[in-house]
Structures are given as structure tokens and as C-alpha cells.
Amino acid sequence: MLYIVIPVFNRLKYTRECLLSLRAQTRTDFRIVVVDDGSTDGTDQMLAREFGEVAVVKGDGNLFWTAGVNAGIRHALTLGANRIMTMNNDVLVLHDFVERMLFWAEKHPQAVLGALELDVATGKPIYGGERLDWRTNTRHDLLAELPEADRHGLHPVTYLPGRGLLIPLEVIEKIGLFDEKRLPHYLADFDYTSVARLHGFAVYCNYDARLSTYPDESGQEQTRRHRSLHGYYQHLFGIRGGGNLRNFTHFTLKNCPPRYMPYYLLNGYARRLVGYFLH
User: Fold this and answer.
1) Bridge pairing between strands 55-59 and 30-37
2) Alpha helices, DSSP H only, in the chain?
3) Which of 17, 150, 162, 197 could be stapled to 86 by a disulfide with Cβ–Cβ 3.0 to 4.6 Å?
4) pLDDT tens-digit readout, 212-241
5) Residue 90's Cα: distance from chain center in Å?
6) pTM for this structure?
């Protein structure tokens, strides 16, 4: 059984819309676990009133993304999950999303799968996976490189985000859960999928399965939209900081081939130090 794990903290409207999109799926042989990390906007009452079929795990407001996902995965495993899908609450899945994810999961039962992301406002694709050249810290955007006629099926990638990320039980049994100690929020999803690939599991972006996202609502975008010295500090050192130097270092030490590590680290530090002001 597939269990979809969704960590939430406030943003009730997004959570409701996400769950309604999951309720409208063409394939319904899955269950949902919401990890409510101390929301104060009535999320708990809404879930109890409108989504009685959803299992809820409570947090105290200090889980952040990684520990929240891990708490949901642990609960799902006790309920007999053999596949886990992590999902953020600020996504809308198209009606055949689960069907198209499980179609390929059943053909490649040990593969880790992500999905093609669309802009919720325009319906246009905005993210379809990356291939990273560790030697030069160059990211090859599959959407930019794939001809439109080839934008279907599975495409191998270096790592995947946690929005609609399908993980077979075999992967969890081999590499464990997400690294909540060293990567409490950002990069935990990229790290997990990269580690899975290093352990021999195929990692694909599934271009047949689509979900819509709100790109302007990410924490990184909001921080950059209101630039300040405080925002710059949070960008580099805060738990939710998209350029967090400690997180980047941990990710690099775990995943980068040793011979490329010195350049990759120096290049990455430079990008984070100046990138806040360039985007």
C-alpha cells in the first residue's frame, strides 16, 4: 500500500486544496498521513471535520520538514506501507497523478520516482529534474535540454525534490530515513535521493505524472523578495535558509566524489555568498 506523507505547519488553505486534489484521483489505493507540526490556524480542526480518512501525526512546532517527514514515514510503516510518497502541502496533483506514478513504480519497483512540476498559475512546466556535473558544479536542466516530443516517461536524474517523491520500502530498509540531524529542512530531499542513487537505486523524474506548485511561495523566494541584512544572515545560517552553508557542506561531504570536493565546496560557498543579491 502506498502512503502519502505531508508535513504541514499552518497554511490551512493549501493543505485543504492539496487533500482535495488527492481525493479526486483516478486511482485510490493509497492512504494519507498528515504531520501537523503545531499549526495554530485551525488546521487540526479542519482535518478532523473534513478529512476523516486522513491519519494525523502531531508535532510540537519544532520538527521542520525533515523530522516531520520522518515522523510520518514511521507512522506509515507501522500501518503496513510498502511505498512512501513525500509531498508538500502547497501542491495540487493532477487527477491521474497517483495512477501515473504507480504505473511506473510497478514496472520499476526499486526505483525512486519524482514528478514533472507545473506552475499552478500558467500550467507550464517549470521543473523536470537535473543532472549535476560534480566536477564543475554545473546543473543540467532536463526541461531545457529535452525536446518537447521526449517529455514523457522516465528520465534519470542526480537527485529529486520531496514534492511528490515516491520511495520504495526497499530503499528505506537499505538507507534509512531522511537525515534530520544534519539537514533539518532544505537539501534533505536532494540528499536522500542522491544517497539512494549512490546505493544503486535508480532515480528518475516521471514526466507522465504532473503536479502543480506555487513557485513564489517557497521560503527561499520570500526571503529574496525582501532583501535585508537579517534576511541575508538567515539565508546563510537559518534552518529555513536556502543558502545555508552548513547544510551545503553536509550535503557535499556525503555526496560529492572526493576528487571534485575542494572545487565544488569553494564554488558552492561563493555562489551562496553572492547569490542572495543576484536573484
Assistant:
1) parallel
2) 12-23, 43-50, 64-78, 97-107, 142-145, 169-175, 188-198, 219-225, 229-237, 245-255, 261-275
3) 162
4) 999 876 555 555 556 788 888 787 778 778
5) 11
6) 0.93
Phi, psi for residue 74 in degrees, rounded to 5: -55, -45
Q: Which residue has the cell 490556524?
A: 41
**CATH match for 2-216 among 3.30.1330.40, 1.20.1740.10, 3.30.950.30, 3.90.550.10:** 3.90.550.10
CATH 3.90.550.10 occupies which residues in the chain?
2-216
The Cα 223–Cα 226 span in angstroms is: 6
> Residues 15, 187, 134, 168: what is their CA dihedral angle, to the nearest 10 degrees?
-60
Nearest to 34 by CA among 82, 62, 68: 68
Asked if residue 6 lies in contact with residue 72, where contact means CB atoms within 8 angstroms, the answer is yes
pLDDT tens string 237-263: 787 788 889 999 999 999 999 999 999
**Chain position carrying cell 554545473:** 138
Q: How many residues does the chain have?
A: 279
